[in-house]
């Protein structure tokens, strides 16, 4: 029933209004069907799940099933669960002062039953908005049955003059308070086994025991869980009877394509800053996204833990911040991040990598630098780097003769352009790839850094951690024709870059 100024205030008025109660799963199903008929977006802001996760969630809701989302960190599990609130009615009537949202027509608490017995059709009605009908709990090993189901409150018993066995002495837990709504538990395997037993018992039979006193609570609730797949064998596990009572097990995943990852990162990252306009070149956004994709396949990184989508989001935000700081120092009007800003975002990468033993020997910072360099090589190839081999040869020859070029993340666009113009073939290569922009020198500078980073990744030129480009110490390994770097081939596949002779 929509919000109105004349909504019923008593049970009698509610009856006269023609209101008919329905279960929360029926309510969600009918509202979902209405959205499907109207072609409305079901989970706005969720990108990359249109053909995988979302249809499975919709199927579970249409089947009126409880479900669990299984996936690694940073896969939008909590966001999906919280958006289920949109499938609830705007508000529903409950008996006034009911702790567990008693249905006025079918109260399940003793308070609700006594209220109806005492007042009849004059029993007061309250209206609960959809946001208040969602309850979420992060599972931890110290969560108890009392937290979720409830416990006897001796103080309430003393004040009301009740014996402890009286139902009116119960202090209800989170699950009963989610009655006629949605109850979500994140990281379900972290719950102790005996607590999970309490969950599946109330899911199936509606029976609970509080301090040994049997209480029947036929709760009307949609139960939704999230978990990391590895938790089945790591920190804990979901007990078999509970798994059997969960209607659907839906697996989430990371973006399957770089383009989808870029779209997610651009949507979530905070790049619209106050003051100067900010322009993020597409190839920089793509290179940042490729860092996460490469990390998800790197054997030195623990893939059971996963590489969260928060990694490229944080890297983009930090790179923009570094570019913003430089623009303020140099007095530039437009903020354009480049590869030196990506290196400045190393702290946003290292803290998000769980390393295997081999990775611990190398170190998170070195692995992060290698991921950045490799992402530059892949991005360069994706943007047509193989089509500009002739000017690239001039760049390689220039540094091979002993020339050096120092780039700083605090250097202005003008200073960088002055340095790049001294490198034969560099600007030609950028123009040949279609990355140079006459109206945006900062964009051209970012493209030039991409080319230099790609050449350094292939060991065709050298690069130090301080951003000094020069002659490689040894020749790159030979590669077949047709690679992104011509006859030199891609060379370095992810190992440490050698120093060069100054």
Overall average residue pLDDT: 87
Compute the CA-based radius of gyration.
30 Å
According to DSSP, the number of beta strands is 15
> What is the overall shape?
elongated
Low-pLDDT regions: 475-502
N- and C-termini, Cα separation: 76 Å
Total domain modules: 2
Describe the largest sheet: 5 strands, parallel
**Contiguous helical run count:** 21
Structural class: alpha/beta
How much helicity do the residues have? 40-55%
* Largest sheet, spatial ordering of strands: 4-7-10-1-11
Task: State the assembly state of the protein chains.
Answer: single chain
Strand content: 5-15%
Describe this structure in words.
The chain is an alpha/beta fold and 502 residues long. The chain has 2 domains: 11-251, P-loop containing nucleotide triphosphate hydrolases (Rossmann fold, 3-Layer(aba) Sandwich); 258-501, no CATH class. The protein has 21 helices and 15 strands. It has a 5-stranded parallel beta sheet. Strands 12, 13, 14 and 15 form a 4-stranded antiparallel beta sheet that branches. A hairpin with a 4-residue loop joins strand 13 (462-463) and strand 14. It is elongated and about 95 Å long.
């Amino acid at each position: 029933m929509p919000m109105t100024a004349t909504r019923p205030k008593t049970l009698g008025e509610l009856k006269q209004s023609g209101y008919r109660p329905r279960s929360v799963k029926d309510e969600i199903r009918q509202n979902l069907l209405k959205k499907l008929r109207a072609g409305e977006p079901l989970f706005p802001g969720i990108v990359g799940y249109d053909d995988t996760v979302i249809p499975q969630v919709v199927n579970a809701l249409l089947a009126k099933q409880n479900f669990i989302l299984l996936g690694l960190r940073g896969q939008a599990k909590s966001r999906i669960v919280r958006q289920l609130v949109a499938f609830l009615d705007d508000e529903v009537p409950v008996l006034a002062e009911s702790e567990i949202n008693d249905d006025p027509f079918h109260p399940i608490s003793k308070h609700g039953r006594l209220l109806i017995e005492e007042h009849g059709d004059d029993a007061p009605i309250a209206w609960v908005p959809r946001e208040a009908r969602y309850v979420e709990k992060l599972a931890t090993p110290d969560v108890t049955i009392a937290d979720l189901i409830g416990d006897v409150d001796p103080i309430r018993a003393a004040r009301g003059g009740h014996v402890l066995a009286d139902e009116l002495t119960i202090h209800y837990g989170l699950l009963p308070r989610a009655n006629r709504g949605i109850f979500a538990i994140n990281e379900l395997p972290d719950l102790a086994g005996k607590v999970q037993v309490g969950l599946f018992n109330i899911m199936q039979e509606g029976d609970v025991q509080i301090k040994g006193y049997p209480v029947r609570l036929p709760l009307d609730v949609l139960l939704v869980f999230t978990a990391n797949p590895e938790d089945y064998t790591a920190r804990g596990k979901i007990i078999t009877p509970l798994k059997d009572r969960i209607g659907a097990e839906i697996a989430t995943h990371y973006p399957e394509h770089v383009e989808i990852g870029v779209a997610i990162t651009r949507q979530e990252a905070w790049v619209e800053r106050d003051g100067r306009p900010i322009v993020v070149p597409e190839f920089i956004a793509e290179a940042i996204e490729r860092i996460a994709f490469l990390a998800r396949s790197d054997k030195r990184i623990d893939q059971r833990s996963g590489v969260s989508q928060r990694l490229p989001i944080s890297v983009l935000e930090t790179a923009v911040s570094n570019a913003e700081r430089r623009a303020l120092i140099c007095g530039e009007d437009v903020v354009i991040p480049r590869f030196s800003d990506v290196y400045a975002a190393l702290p946003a990468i290292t803290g998000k990598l769980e390393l295997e033993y081999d990775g611990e020997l190398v170190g998170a910072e070195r692995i992060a630098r290698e991921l950045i360099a490799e992402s530059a090589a892949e991005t360069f190839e994706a943007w047509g780097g193989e089509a500009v081999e002739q000017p690239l040869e001039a760049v390689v020859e220039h540094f091979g003769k002993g020339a050096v070029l120092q780039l700083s993340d605090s250097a202005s666009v003008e200073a960088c352009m002055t340095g790049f113009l001294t490198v034969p073939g560099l600007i030609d290569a950028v123009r040949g790839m279609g990355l140079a922009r006459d109206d945006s020198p900062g964009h051209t500078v970012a493209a030039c850094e991409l080319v230099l980073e790609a050449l350094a990744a292939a060991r065709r030129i050298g690069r130090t951690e301080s951003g000094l480009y020069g002659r490689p110490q040894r020749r790159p390994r030979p590669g077949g024709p047709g690679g992104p770097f011509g006859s030199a081939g891609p060379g370095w596949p992810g190992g440490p870059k050698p120093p060069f002779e100054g």
